[in-house]
Design goal:
The structure holds two protein chains of two kinds. Chain A is an alpha+beta fold. Chain A has 16 helices and 35 strands. In chain B, a hairpin with a 4-residue loop joins strand 1 and strand 2. In chain B, helix 2 packs antiparallel against helix 7 and helix 7 packs across helix 8. By secondary structure, chain B is α+β, with helices and mostly antiparallel strands. The chains are: A alpha+beta, B alpha+beta. Chains A and B meet through helix 3 and helix 12 of A and helix 1, helix 2, helix 7, helix 8 and helix 9 of B.
Chain lengths: ~700, ~550
Amino acid sequence: MARWRVGVDSGGTFTDVCLFDEEEGRVEVWKVSSTPDDPSRGIAQGVEEGMRRVAPEAGEKPAAPVSYFGHGTTVATNALIQHRGVKTGLVTTDGFRDLLEIGRQKRPDLYDIQADKPPVLVPRDLRQEVPERVRHDGSIDTALDEAKMRAAAVALREAGVKAVAVSFLYGFIRPEHEARAVEILREEMPDAFISAGHEIAPEFREYERLSTVVLNAYLGPVMRSYIERLTPRLEALGMTATPHLTQSNGGVIGFAAAAGLPVRTVLSGPSTGVVGAQAIGKLAGFEDLITFDMGGTSTDVALLQGGQCRLTSEAVVHGYPIKAPMLDIHTVGAGGGSIAYVDAGGLLKAGPRSCGAFPGPVCYDQGNEEPATTDANVVLQTLNPTHLLGGRMAIRQDLSKAAIQKLADKLGLGLMETAQGILSVVTANMARAIRVISVQRGHDPRDFTLMAFGGGGPLHAARLAKELDMKRVLVPRNPGILCAMGLLLTDLRADFAATKLLPLVQGSIGEVADGFATLVARAEDWFAHEEIAPGDRVLTRTADMRYAGQNYELAVPLPEGPVTAATLDALAAGFEDLHRQRYGFIAEGEAVQIVTLRLEATGKVRKAALPRFPEAGPDASGAITGQRPVWFPEAQDFVPTPIYRREGLKPGNRFAGPAIVEQMDTTTVVPPGMSARVDPYLNLILEVVA
Amino acid sequence: MSQAVSQATAPVLDPITVEVIGAALSSIVEETGEALIRASYSTNIKERRDCSTALFNAAGETLCQAEHIPIHLGSFIGIIPHIMAKHRVEDMRPGDVFVGNDAYEGGGTHLPDIVLAEPIFVDGRIAAWTVNLAHHSDFADRGHAHIYQEGLRIPPVRLYRAGVLQEDVQNLILLNCQVPHERLSDLRAQMAANRVGVQRFQALCAKYGAETVLAAADELLNYAERKMCAGIAAMPDGTWHFEDVFDPIDTADNMPFKVSVTVEGDSMSLDFDAPDQRRAGINMTYTALLATVYYIVKSVVDPSILPNAGLARPLSVTARKGSILNCEHPAAVNGRLAACQRVSDLILGAIAQAAPEKVTACSNSVCTVASFIGQRKSDGKLWVYLETMGGGSGARHNKDGLDGVHVHTTNTSNLPVEALEIEYPLTLLRYELVEESAGDGQYRGGMGLRRVYRADEDCMVRVDIGRLRSRSWGLAGGGAGGHGAVECGPGVTFQGSVATLKAGQWFAVVSPGAGGYGPASARAPEAVARDVAEGVISPVHAKDIYAFQS
């Protein structure tokens, strides 16, 4: 019987498979090496091996007992970073084909005159212009020249492009020209992947929309062929459940819908981590969270208030602007592999250069001689000085010491001070990233709990919390597989938007109501396609608003019920509250505008329920496996520190810092002045001792 | 570690604390900048981001400037000393906010850049200043014979006194503005930004102790100085000369600009020569010259040097008083950016002889501007719209220049067509790269831009364009970039830099291309083939210059 919910997070090094038994509430984890040349192989292998372990009775159809399949993927991200999309053509309004290259006419770096822009994804000779022009009020200045449009399609076909983007000025206000262009393209090149502005990103600001549509076309065939390889592999394993993919907004959609919107999956990986953090935070009773997902080369941070992560409608990803609903995740190029060095002015720096998985930090003894963050932890003995990965990997502390001593000599500091200094610099960089998503958005980090995961999060979280005056750190039970777990804890979700420039006056009620009615109709179609029962459909409406004259909007939630005069009053009040929170003032008497109507559609699905474990009393001594000296800055010295085995910790257990908690996929540091306790879900909660 | 420091009586500084506090100061100026842009109203700030934010120490030295616009550093350098000269420190109170813009008395470099400066009090003393600048797109259609024509001159005066708005002062300023409603809204956004700066700096002092923060800030100045010295010391000693001409649309002649750059050990001196200041808005004050030098030397020597006052210490800058490059009252200065751009490339031309791999060939070397003013048919209100255009950036020793970007001392975004047409009675007909505008070479220069405007209501337009008679030079045998130009539709004629447009008429502004690097004969055939395919050059050009047969 189908009773297993399966989440698969396919990363650069490992493919994590999380299996949840709906009947017994049991969670199992399986890890296999990723297969970067064709990730679908590793995924199929992971699912097959994982399922054979938990449900051997399924025999030759190991995936038959799978009731739900969720997947977070880096296929779109990697194709973008490595510029491995397809040969793509572009059709624009006459006079505007170079906009893709000009962008906002800013140079890539303010001071570095040797810097370059990211490559343009469609070269100039594949950018076709056609006569047509719509005006900002929706009137037609120049009708679409269909003969020229057809000639453009023929030229692109003859040039051998595999995908075409179409984006005209004001296509979001009046889409007929774009729609007709798409028809002609389909007639002339039936096999091409075609993306149009009014379908992919119907919002104003032509360059950012254009960039989004081009990316979607560029990545489309890559994603489509990936899905076409993965689907039969899963079917061959006997899986009958509909497979789902995570989007950058943290929600999942079916493979078929995802294949048409690859631009919405570029943050698929990190967004699943946020979703996992959200669910675990809710269970643990902490809904105001800052997530801290620290890996080898980069770190992702996000803020959740009341259990919700802010959704942005636009961000620059790997140098390309994207207009799509994305969780507000901020990434910094610093992680365990970041290399520390002394620069020409004599200051200690860490990152963004990284030693990667190979050769890895100096302590791996694989040829790298420049110390990384990990080496600093090995010298301080916050990390085990003889082996990592639960004993699977031997390391050389002497090499780490020698490398850091060289830096110490340059700085005129001691070895331990320098090692601690590397961590202070890394922590300052992380704190700066967290200020971007908290202070810059009007939130005080002191009101939040820091949720640490990824391989390095728990190791650095307590220091980071201290830097930001945060009082509490939450380390989930399995910090290394939180992303795969997140896939089993999320609902289906799609976002719909329409730009409508309207004054916030009673006369706009009709247009606001009509606008939302159109979005709701689209959402209902999507629900039907995803086979969501009417009782499991949730719709949330927001309006992006600003003072007439401003250009950045604030997203204001709409109250439930039909759009009436009271709705507009509530919007006005909500807007003023947000404006005051963000900017410290309101402009009384100024006209307010609604710019974009947004609808978030959520289809409730059955989610993994994490088991509660029985209370076992405060005594944690049973989990102690030994003791080692660990260097703490509070003491400016080594302090004898007990080492706990994470698997041995039980609900209710309490212990005081200094302490180290080791588990296969991470190490948690509990510094002096903090205490730790274990909650019924086996989360570890660190708190500042009052 | 930080705790130990804050408890000590005298600040004990180590390189790590300095680095940590440096990251916090950068974070503060970024946050203030973000608040300013997001809360602002005028297209020039909210979309084009023509604004800057910075922190200064009590002595008026720049501690940190956000990465917005290099020339604004010049508008900041003088502001605190000018405030100090006119106001007693002991009379200053928390919540005092000074406003100023004057190029001679207010610390500015041209009048539209209005600066708001607020002292940050910690433990009853001024610990630092939060300062921001916004280019207010106003003061249009007034003339540029001398500074009195160019707008209202504001010496540093209190706009707020202990947190209370001085409405008299505000009313006086607003009555002198053509679009007072926008000015008021943008001033409010500037206030919101300073509020962020004050709160965040005070929080930093509460955490580390004011003395530690200030000592670290001093050390960051020393740090920038050391990095600048290290970068200069890596260059060979010697003196290098370079000469170019300055040919803005407002003057009929080509004016010679000269520089001598001398490197001696770890210091650098730059001496400029230029003709006497003119009765046109093309002159630059000494602070604008300093900002230009700081920008370009930092870019060449080490782009990662912190943008603070320490980087200036190894540099000495001289130019004759009363010349275009060091003008005196009452010279007009509105279009000083054109001269700043030319000076930036002038310095590169000299340094190219010492460190050819660190520079670029000449970029478009102008700041191309179109400013419109009209009166709306619907309500009779005045509208003013200004925009600047990028152009080619110079080729490098191992790669092509960039096409259609803002270079050197300026760095503003374009306004989206879909925002421009909603706000102003203008339609954009084309926005494109200019074919045949890139300087030839082994590595080609960047292409210029063309922007074609149609007036939908009657209005006036003024353009600042350059490289009309001269061209941006190449290096090491590279060719020169294309000219700047205006192109007129039927019925449109420019009187100098100004034209009157009737509804339905169109004209175009063309920005210059940039110089190439290395001889054209050394360009890879694949690169020439790509240029032909992409229309950067014609097949005939490829055959004539590159001996390329397609």
